[in-house]
Specification:
Blueprint (H helix, E strand, L loop, with lengths): L3 H12 L5 H20 L13 H19 L2 H21 L2 E2 L6 E2 L7 H22 L10 H15 L10 H15 L1
Antiparallel strand pairs: 1-2
């Protein structure tokens, strides 16, 4: 799942109206944030073991859940944030392929190879999550416009439009790590 994670965060806001939306959004995309951080550090995480494995997601859920509980002084918010990190992985099993543990099996339905099917799944999650939050989640005024889900659905369409049915190659972090290794060999 790509932008659909944000729709899930919106839906979580409808469940707990006083939970800070920023915590919910960060939690819903946390394993992807870990990927970006690792990639920026030049660490190749091709199988996602450092960000999307069961152990990595559990660790991220504990850290973010505890941090949000401490920051908001709400154990319920902490539990919701931790749950959103775990839900990230569960929905990624539908749209992608993820390794369960180091050197373990890779599982998932891999809808990314069928961009139209992925879009057909994610667009309703985005719109439905926003609608729930807009109706019962007490969204900030700037998020209350129908332009928000429209923009997010357009981002999802762009992401799905850039997907290739054939092998998409290594994640950008691995390509960056390979480039860095090559550059080090020159010197």
């Amino acid at each position: 799942m790509i932008i659909g994670h944000i729709g899930i965060a919106f839906a979580a806001r409808a469940v707990k109206r006083d939970a800070p939306l920023l915590w919910l959004i960060v939690a819903s995309v946390a394993p992807d944030i870990v990927d970006v951080v690792l990639g920026s550090a030049g660490v190749c995480n091709a199988t996602g073991v450092d960000s999307h494995s069961l152990a990595a997601v559990a660790a991220t859920a504990v850290v973010l859940g505890a941090a949000s509980a401490w920051a908001t002084r709400s154990g319920r918010t902490g539990m919701l944030v931790a749950a959103l990190v775990i839900v990230h992985l569960l929905v990624d099993y539908v749209t992608g392929l993820k390794v369960l543990w180091a050197h373990g099996p890779i599982v998932g339905l891999d809808l990314y190879h069928w961009p139209i099917a992925d879009f057909a799944l994610e667009a309703p999650v985005i719109v439905g999550g926003w609608w729930l939050a807009q109706r019962w989640g007490d969204l900030p005024r700037w998020l209350d416009s129908w332009l928000v889900p429209l923009a997010l659905v357009c981002l999802q369409a762009a992401a799905d439009g850039s997907q290739r049915a054939e092998n998409p190659g290594p994640p950008a972090a691995c390509a960056k790590a390979d480039i860095l290794k090559g550059a080090r060999r020159l010197f």
